[in-house]
Design brief:
This protein is an alpha/beta fold. It has 7 helices and 7 strands; from the N terminus they run E-H-E-H-E-H-E-H-E-E-H-H-H-E.
């Protein structure tokens, strides 16, 4: 299988929170999209490994993904080790994605910071020729960073994607993770999902649409024209 876009998430639910709108837009455009969760995300206060698998399967169905897997790395102690780099590079060589999405590189959550360091290193390793890794060398063309940030900060994005037609579907995908965003929050107002909507509306307002998702990029973004700009 060859993917157009592969989103790499430290935990199940990070891809939905940060980039579900982009995933849905890519799927609507006929692109092949996958998600690789690096850990199972457990333990959490109201979750369990079995529950998280069920929730992930439900969210995957909402998003209509072409591929999803879990690399099985340790939650809470994720590190960009050489062994993990090799495992991830092999996935890149097998799926041969054109574009990658990784978490924003500054975060209070150590797993998110480690995930981005791991992804960037594995992207480089995936193109190596003289290696015992299986598969042919491959270097994804672009690496974008989605916002799923545990800091009270609003970094300036490289671009904001209009996800207005897909907001309700994104909300449905996130809501699949009941153990993470609904259980134990019955008295919270506004709800977590309300705040997620407000964030998407903030980014949408910044580009003159209803809802948006922000993305960062360490590399220049090339354009062949201006016709697709909002």
């Amino acid at each position: 299988m060859q993917l157009d876009l592969l989103v790499i998430a430290p935990h199940p639910d990070d891809a939905e929170l940060g980039t579900a709108g982009a995933i849905l837009r890519c799927k609507a455009d006929g692109l092949r999209v996958g998600v690789l969760d690096l850990t199972d995300g457990e333990p959490t206060p109201h979750g369990s490994p079995a529950t998280r698998v069920q929730e992930t399967d439900a969210a995957t169905a909402v998003l209509g993904l072409d591929w999803r897997a879990n690399l099985g790395l340790p939650n809470r102690s994720l590190e960009p080790t050489l062994e993990a780099r090799r495992e991830l590079a092999i996935v890149f060589r097998r799926l041969r994605p054109r574009w990658l999405m990784a978490p924003y590189w500054i975060d209070a959550h150590p797993d998110h910071v480690a995930a981005t360091a791991l992804i960037e290193a594995a992207r480089f390793w995936a193109k190596l020729s003289k290696t015992d890794m299986p598969g042919e060398p491959h270097h994804p063309e672009r690496l974008y960073h989605y916002y799923c940030i545990h800091l009270k900060m609003v970094p300036q994005p490289a671009f904001v994607l209009d996800i207005s037609p897909f907001w309700e579907q994104k909300r449905a995908a996130v809501a699949c993770y009941h153990s993470q965003f609904v259980a134990g929050r019955s008295t919270q107002t506004p709800t977590f999902l309300d705040r997620l909507r407000d964030e998407a509306a903030f980014w949408g307002k910044s580009i003159g649409v209803d809802y948006g998702e922000p993305f960062a990029c360490r590399e220049p973004i090339g354009l062949t024209g201006l016709t697709s700009l909002v």
